[in-house]
Design a protein that fits this description.
Blueprint lengths: L2 H28 L2 E8 L5 H9 L7 E4 L6 H4 L17 E5 L8 H4 L5 H20 L2 E9 L2 H13 L9 H6 L3 H15 L6 E5 L3 H14 L39
Parallel strand pairs: 1-3, 1-4, 2-3, 4-5
Helix pairs in contact: 1-9, 2-9
């Protein structure tokens, strides 16, 4: 990516992050709750999109939920049960990095769920989501789309980069051969769970930066446009001389080893 394109991306993102902060103030002011689900193929860019939203928000208000493999006890629960404790309270935002739709995607394709479990999930998910929406939760569901050629490039990049290798799991390697199966599972999921009260939105993430901007713009445009004035703060001059860090006890700062 050229420096000019990167600068344009950063400028547009910062503009939207200001709007996201205004949205967060509106949520706090009204007590509304926001849930955003990020689904898609491996390497689509879910983490980057989530970070683009969350980085400029108060982490006490905006939480990212990325659940690990269910424990033995959780496997014996009602499927949606382990997601319920992570839902937002008044004024909060929760961003799900994958969500309950694992059952309709990776669990179905990789054989971790039985056909009966998948069928039950597809029947229950709209009911569960209708309960959330009827209770006032603002629910958005995004599918991040990526072509297989682009996906392969990103897998190779992860394998070559030691800082990204943690993103590459044995499941990812097995899933590489199931691109078509994931597409069929996605289509069945859309057919069963795309409803007026909780629709799916597909975003092209072959270019991740463009995809992030498109997703954030869509989210902002589909939330109520209710401006809440930002509290005016001021920094009056301090009295007296400015203080310095001083340590009189046994604990001392680590010696600086770098010059930048």
């Amino acid at each position: 990516m050229s420096k000019e394109k990167r600068r344009r991306y950063q400028d547009k993102l910062e503009e939207m992050q200001v709007e996201l902060n205004a949205m967060a103030r509106w949520l706090q002011h009204t007590g509304k709750r926001l849930v955003v689900l990020f689904e898609g193929r491996d390497t689509a860019g879910k983490g980057g999109a989530i970070n683009a939203i969350a980085d400029g928000l108060n982490p006490r208000q905006c939480r990212v939920v990325a659940l690990s493999k269910p424990s033995e006890r959780e496997q014996g629960q009602w499927y949606f049960q382990r997601y319920v404790p992570h839902l937002p309270a008044a004024g909060e935002i929760v961003l799900f990095d994958r969500s309950w739709y694992n059952r309709a995607g990776v669990e179905k394709v990789m054989g971790y769920a039985t056909p009966e479990q998948v069928e039950a999930f597809l029947a229950q998910a709209p009911v569960f989501e209708k309960l959330l929406v009827d209770d006032g939760i603002l629910l958005f569901k995004y599918w991040l789309a990526v072509d297989q050629a682009q996906q392969e490039e990103r897998f190779a990049e992860r394998l070559a980069d030691p800082l990204k290798r943690w993103k590459l799991s044995p499941i990812d390697l097995k899933a590489r051969e199931k691109y078509a199966e994931y597409g069929k599972a996605r289509d069945a999921m859309f057919k069963a769970t795309h409803h007026r009260f909780a629709p799916w939105h597909v975003v092209d993430f072959n270019d991740q930066k463009t995809g992030r901007l498109t997703l954030i713009r869509h989210l902002l445009d589909h939330l109520p446009d209710q401006a809440v004035p930002e509290p005016k703060l001021a920094l009056p001059p301090l009295k007296g001389r400015l203080g310095k860090e001083r340590y009189t006890g046994p604990v001392k700062p680590i010696k600086t080893r770098f010059e930048l």
